[in-house]
Design goal:
There is one protein chain. This protein has helices at about 1-10, 15-25, 40-45, 50-60, 80-100, 100-105, 110-125, 130-145, 150-175, 185-195, 200-220; strands at about 35, 65-70, 70-75. The protein is mainly alpha-helical and about 220 residues long. The chain has 2 domains: about 1-75, Arc Repressor Mutant, subunit A (Orthogonal Bundle); about 80-220, GntR ligand-binding domain-like (Four Helix Bundle (Hemerythrin (Met), subunit A)), CATH 1.20.120.530. Strands 1-3-2 form a 3-stranded antiparallel sheet. Strand 2 and strand 3 form a beta hairpin. The longest helix has 25 residues, at about 150-175.
């Protein structure tokens, strides 16, 4: 169990098994429509049912599993159309939010915070796997959204980014996509630069480019 804590950096049993199961879904150890049972996991990990059940239910809440009473938990497939719909929602949400809250963004304190975040992500990016890289880019976009002080908007974006991140990581794993390590940071730096220069149109254009680049990777397109 000590190894699990070290690898996943979590403390509760539920968090540890959630991380393990999520990792298996991303790497297609569990494929679409596979059935996972509590008893099989209890036997494998030699633990009580409670943390396993909690981890499975959390994955259900996230839309990754579907509970089938008296049978088990089915891995929900990631259909291209579903991912496109989530991406379209995210795109509309972020572009509209930047347009609506532009005057809040255009201050030096916000710019400094975003630049600091980009620098931190850049130092960690080389050794990051696809999901970690997505988490880094998601952190930037959520930090941008947090400046707007709209909790509902933030929560909707957070959920969308999580689902898109899993789709992105699965695609990168399946297709072994070449990923430009500097892609995210450069787009993010451009966004912040345009914010600092109070150029809303260019900032929105850079935001669109950043989202579109990751969409191409998700669908294995050039």
């Amino acid at each position: 169990m000590g190894k699990l804590k070290t690898k996943y950096g979590t403390t509760s049993l539920k968090q540890q098994y959630h991380a393990i199961l999520l990792d298996r879904i991303i790497h297609c150890v569990y494929k679409s429509y596979d059935i996972i049972t509590i008893n099989s996991l209890v036997t494998e990990f030699k633990v009580s049912k409670s943390p396993i059940r909690e981890a499975l239910l959390e994955l259900c809440d996230e839309g990754l599993l579907k509970s089938i009473p008296k049978y088990g938990y089915e891995v929900v497939p990631f259909h291209e159309e579903q991912v496109k719909n989530i991406f379209t929602f995210r795109r509309l949400l972020e572009i509209s939010a930047m347009d609506e809250y532009w005057t809040i963004l255009s201050n030096q304190e916000a710019v400094n915070e975003l630049n600091s975040l980009i620098n931190d992500c850049e130092t960690q990016r080389k050794e990051a796997d696809p999901l970690d890289r997505w988490k880094q880019t998601a952190t930037f976009h959520l930090s941008l959204a947090s400046i707007y002080k709209n909790d509902y908007l933030y929560l909707q974006l957070e959920r969308s980014l999580r689902l898109l991140g899993i789709a992105y990581a699965r695609s990168a794993w399946i297709h072994v996509n070449p990923i430009n390590e500097k892609l995210g940071e450069q787009c993010h730096r451009d966004i912040v630069e345009y914010i600092e220069n109070n150029d809303k149109n260019k900032a929105i254009t850079a935001l669109k480019l950043d989202m579109d680049n990751y969409m191409k990777i998700t669908f294995n397109r050039q």
